[in-house]
Write a structure and sequence with these properties.
With 585 residues, the chain is of the alpha+beta class. It has helices spanning 60-63, 123-128, 130-133, 137-159, 200-208, 246-265, 278-285, 302-307, 332-343, 370-379, 395-412, 458-461, 490-499, 504-518, 532-540, 570-576, and strands spanning 19-31, 35-42, 45-52, 71-80, 95-106, 163-164, 182-184, 192-194, 213-221, 233-242, 275-277, 299-300, 318-324, 351-356, 359-361, 387-393, 423-427, 432-435, 440-443, 470-475, 478-485, 525-531.
RNA sequence: GGGAUCGUAGUUCAGUUGGUUAGAACGCCGGCCUGUCAAGCCGGAGGUCGAGGGUUCGAGUCCCUUCGGUCCCGCCA
């Protein structure tokens, strides 16, 4: 091999005349009989190399057999291209390398798919041959953005005295939250470790242990079903601080986020970030992760529907609507599609009326008197050519369905620009959600989240309305970080456990070491965890988390490349004392 | 656990109402070609129509089951 003197993205006009060595992959071959053009590619770019039968002294017949993705090492001279031969689409397009000698480092077998465009192959094939897909420019760009994001995060936090500390990957299974991935213990047969859903307990213990400011870029594992933005193993920027309150978290995390966007994308995010309470976010946007890049806010229309002759909504707990600018163009078919869409979120239907010449037409407009229509026109600030969609039902259904409808319409109407970033903090989450099936409260965030000081007494009197000191950072409709000020009083912690239906014994059994640790001088503390993959997704401008993970899993949590999960030998199982139950089928 | 959708040559796709020998482009193989940059031109090979079952004189096409990919609901922060 000729040790490379330059990369394939490096040579320019100033290098003309120099003898150089390049190593790389054959990106494409253009054979013209007595002259062969090859685009040689490495991580850094592409360079056109030329084999000329007149001047090339080696085996020219072999050169004619070069094919895509062969690995070459070449020696040659950089030369100018004639003006008509310049390729303005390549940064190295003003020069080319006249090859004097080359070594075939590795011949590539015929490829399962052509690497020029990711659409050339279905995703299952690309995932099976992920190493080929990763050679493509688009993925390489994403992987590099990911790398830069790690570096930006580390340098920023380290500069603020945050200490990077690793926490165990083999830990104790804890009951709340997501399903754990379990790891059987060989030494203690019948017992299991769990992989962390997040290093939550460890980072709180580190605060108690005096480490003041901690961070870690860490893999977390959740055995739940996947989504386009959800993988079973994913990465968090995990952060915890002592002697602080919410404002300290907001200031530092905004600083971190601004630093990342500025250094990776050159984008200035607002200072400070706007904030919304959970209640406002739900009422105004129908989501706890609102996308603020567009309006279409949810508006209360119950007074109007109650005053109308439309009886369907009279008994509804809540009636809200959204106005779509120019939505009067929607056909019956469009509206039917959107009706089916909201039915996924348990809405029974989608009522609508179009505005035309200051009055409503179509849909349920005939149930609204002229005066009522006039009042609505003024109050709801609609315009001719708009459409009003309404849902009436239980509050949670109305908000959820309209919230999703809002996002869907923004997508259909292309209201979002992926280079526009609108962060917003969502605060004052409820402490608990009531789980009807289990007939008990479950923690909305997690069981260590502190209630607001003013709400501590409500834990006894009115737990379902207690608000927490939890907060999420939302960006363009994605939750990119979430955290809370933690409980540092053992008494409050035990109270919360009991509300979650954990007896004293169970709480001690499951979280005893943390409860105990809280009694040995726990500082007030709180923290946050960023979804690193989602953050990189947004920075890279993709909506698919697999695009920013080198070796992602499929929707059914398998890896098509290495075929995991897979069977293990009887010996391995035996050592672990594990027997596989026959499947029901 | 549920819903939607996709699966045809190495790859991306087309394939009518069920009807004779399942097509195209790219890739691959062979040939021509000294300025291309998605090179071009000529020729060739290449098919378990995801798998299994059924209906039918006849199934890529209709029905059932099943496997896999993707998106969504539930689930998950």
């Amino acid at each position: 091999m000729y040790k490379r003197s330059h990369t394939c993205g490096q040579l320019r006009k100033t290098n003309v005349g120099v003898t150089i060595n390049l190593n790389g992959w054959v990106n494409s071959v253009r054979l013209h009989g007595q002259v062969v053009f090859v685009d040689l590619r490495d991580r850094y770019g592409k360079t056109q190399i030329v084999f000329d039968a007149d001047s090339f002294s080696g085996d020219f017949e072999a050169v004619k057999k070069l094919s895509m993705e062969d690995v070459l090492s070449i020696q040659g001279a950089v030369r100018d291209r004639s003006e008509s031969a310049v390729n303005p689409n390549m940064v190295t397009g003003e020069i080319e390398v006249a090859v004097t000698d080359y070594i075939m480092l590795n011949e590539a077998a015929p490829l399962p798919f052509v690497l020029s465009d990711r659409d050339n192959a279905e995703e299952n094939l690309r995932l099976k041959y992920r190493y080929l897909e990763l050679r493509m420019e688009e993925l390489q760009k994403n992987i590099l953005i990911r790398h830069e994001t790690y570096q930006a995060v580390r340098s920023y936090l380290s500069g603020l005295e945050f200490v990077e500390i690793e926490t165990p990957v083999l830990m104790k299974s804890t009951p709340e939250g997501a399903r754990d991935y379990l790891v059987p213990s060989r030494i203690h047969q019948g017992k299991f470790y769990a992989l962390p859903q997040s290093p939550q307990i460890y980072k709180q213990i580190l605060m108690i242990a005096n480490y003041d400011r901690y961070f870690q870029i860490v893999k977390c594992f959740r055995d739940e079903d996947l989504r386009a933005d959800r993988q079973p193993e994913f990465t968090q920027i995990d952060i915890e601080m002592s002697f602080i309150d919410e404002e300290d978290i907001f200031v530092h995390m905004e600083g971190l986020t601004r630093h990342v966007f500025k250094s990776i994308r050159g984008i200035d995010l607002p200072d400070p970030f706007p904030r919304l309470t959970y209640a406002d976010a739900m009422e105004t946007y129908g989501s706890d992760k609102p996308d603020l890049r567009y309006g279409m806010q949810l508006q209360d229309v119950k007074d109007f529907t109650d005053a109308s002759d439309f009886n369907v909504f009279k008994s509804a707990e809540k009636v809200k609507g959204i106005i779509i600018k120019g939505g009067a163009k929607y056909s019956r078919k469009n509206i039917d599609e959107l009706t089916d869409f909201v039915k996924k979120y348990k809405a029974k239907g989608l009522a609508w009326m179009k505005w035309e010449k200051g009055t409503f037409i179509g849909g349920i407009s005939k149930f609204f008197s002229e005066n009522l229509q006039k009042a609505m026109f003024e109050k709801l600030s609609g315009n001719d050519g708009d459409i009003l969609f309404m849902i009436g039902d239980d509050s949670s259904i109305v908000l959820n369905a309209l919230g999703h409808l809002r996002v869907e319409i923004a997508k259909r109407e292309a209201l979002t620009n992926k280079d526009d970033f609108k962060p917003v903090w969502v605060t004052e989450f409820p402490m608990f959600e009531y789980d009807k099936e289990a007939d008990r409260f479950i923690a909305m965030h997690h069981p260590f989240t502190a209630p607001r000081e003013s709400d501590i007494e409500m834990l006894d009197s009115d737990p379902s309305n207690t608000l927490s000191r939890g907060y999420d950072l939302t960006l363009n409709g994605y939750e990119i970080a979430g955290g809370s000020i933690r409980i540092h009083s053992p008494k409050v912690q035990e109270k919360v456990f009991s509300l979650l239906g954990l007896s004293r014994e169970e709480a001690v059994e499951k979280f005893g070491f943390l409860v105990e640790a809280l009694t040995y001088g726990a500082p007030p503390h709180g923290g946050i965890a960023f979804g690193f993959d989602r953050l990189v997704m947004l920075l890279a401008g993709t909506e698919n988390i697999r695009d920013v993970i080198a070796f992602p899993k499929t929707t059914s949590a398998t890896s098509l490349m290495d075929e995991s999960p897979n069977n293990v030998s009887a010996n391995q199982l035996d050592e672990l004392g594990i027997q596989i139950k026959k499947s029901k089928k």
